[in-house]
Amino acid sequence: MLKIIKAVRVRYIFALLAMALLVSMAAGLMQFLLFEKQQDAKIINIAGMQRMLSQKVLLKAHRLASISESTVAMQSVNGELQTSINLFAQNHEFLVDLNAEGNFFSEQLNRWYFLKPVMLDQRSREFVQRIRNFQPTEQRELNELYMISQALLVDLDRAVQLFEQQSNQGVQRLRYVESGIWLLAMLLLILEAKLIFRPMEAQILAGINELKFQKNETEQALSIKSRFLARASHELRTPLQSILGYLDLYRQERQVHQLEQAVTSANQLNVLINEMHDFSRWSNEKIKIQNSYAKLKTTIEMVAAPYKLSAQKKGLTLTVQMDGIGHTQLQCDHQHLAWVCSQLIDNAIKFNDSGEILLVVKVHTLQMQAYLKIQVIDQGFGFDEELLSTLNDHGKIDNHFQGMQLGLVRCQWLVNAMSGEFKFFNRPNGGACVSFSIPVILADNGTSERQINAHGAKALLVEDNAINAVILQKQLSNLGFDVQHVSHGKAAVEILASRSFDVIFMDLNMPYMDGYEAIDHIRTMLTLDITIIVVTANDEPQDIAKAIRLGANEYIVKPLQQDKLTDMLLRLGVISASECT
């Protein structure tokens, strides 16, 4: 939206500047033309004055010739005569100079003043000269002066007409210029409307439509999240009830497998919590696949254990068939695999009231590639034909959510991201079958088990939560670390100033000095090149990226799983593994 506002502002300012420039140019041109017309009026006024002065000079000459007694009167009239003839000469020079200054004279005026037969310039000068040399006692000269003055009056009158004609032509040009400016202004407005304001309107409408689209998407996302959160607490109860149920049985019967089932259910609960955290980032493009080696039996048991009690309470039987491959180690994304299986089992339990739910796990090889195929089969009513058609047409999947309102769409995304294939169909004898197949890599059966040992490497654990610290210390001690624990970043930098460690496990949110500041201090102030592993419950990409940017080497998300912790430490070279038989 800010980009649109900036673009609109630029276009609007450009339009205003263009119009302001045109108005300024028009105003300047009009001022210039009006000044010219003012000069024209002055010139016409002076040219008209010449006619009057020629007659006034003749009148004064006659009066001077009629006065013979009074010397004082003669001097007065002669003074008036000289004043008039001087003004006539001055005006004539002004008019003639106009032609010399800038070709002000039109072609007709130029001929009238300087060319035969009129030669008004020469005759006006001669008239001035004769008046200045006028002898009032000579009647003949007075008569000649009268004839010259009358002829000059006619030519001066014509000169005034020529000046007026030239001025009228200038007025006509002014009208043309004014019309041209008006047309240019109209053209500019049309161009602004077409090239500036119409695109601006289209851009604003596009921005409004985009905002409406984003609003609808946001409202839809909020609606989905609201339904998700409403269902999440219900879905988390399944593994939680399994944990409490098996712990209660263990308290009564003290069977080790019951405690193992509780641990398995706790792992499943952790999977669901991770999926909840990732919900806001779920999209087909953003799914991150993390392949690792693990026992297939462990993954499947983690999935099935929480649902056995739920199925039993509903009168259902959950059976797992693994065809003798339970101890096979294979490489795939075990966490996402477990989540897909749990969703399919959860759906089967929800939509069946009796009978058996069968989880079939097979591994087969096709053209040198191993595939893991999993089927969830029930004995219920099966899929509705319309729903079944929609599910098998990936392009039409819209909102078929089950479980945590994430359901089959998410399952298909995950299977596609793992390069697998998803299928839905109804069984001939009743019930539904949902199956998927993903490529996997089988571990070499001849591979010896690894013996992990840190050989007494010194580890600094920076953790403010006492319970987490105890668990982490125990996990690290089992790997052979000599662990030193401090409860915040300030204590960590103080102990690092005097003691050396092989690896640091750093929490991020702590009092006094958080993990970010502590990592920065270790790298910049203490200049230590020690392996730093961030241990946090916050896996937001921007926060992890900030820690890595400050100098952390790797991160792991709480709650820590021993196998993932081991794999990461091996990858970083902090610990080593030796084969044993």
UniProtKB/TrEMBL annotation:
User: Which SUPFAM superfamilies does the annotation name?
Assistant: ATPase domain of HSP90 chaperone/DNA topoisomerase II/histidine kinase (SSF55874), CheY-like (SSF52172), Homodimeric domain of signal transducing histidine kinase (SSF47384)
Q: Which reaction does it catalyse?
A: ATP + protein L-histidine = ADP + protein N-phospho-L-histidine
The Histidine kinase domain is annotated at 231-442
Q: What is its EC number?
A: 2.7.13.3
- Source organism per entry reads Pseudoalteromonas holothuriae
Among InterPro entries, the record links this protein to:
CheY-like_superfamily (IPR011006), HATPase_C_sf (IPR036890), HATPase_dom (IPR003594), His_kinase_dom (IPR005467), HisK_dim/P_dom (IPR003661), HisK_dim/P_sf (IPR036097), NarX-like_N (IPR029095), Sig_transdc_resp-reg_receiver (IPR001789)
Source organism superkingdom? Bacteria
Pfam families, A to Z: HATPase_c, HisKA, PilJ, Response_reg
Tell me the organism's taxonomic lineage: Bacteria, Pseudomonadati, Pseudomonadota, Gammaproteobacteria, Alteromonadales
Q: Does the keyword RNA-binding apply?
A: no
Please name the PROSITE patterns in this protein's record. HIS_KIN, RESPONSE_REGULATORY
What is the protein's given name? histidine kinase
Keywords from UniProt, A to Z, are: Kinase, Membrane, Phosphoprotein, Transferase, Transmembrane, Transmembrane helix
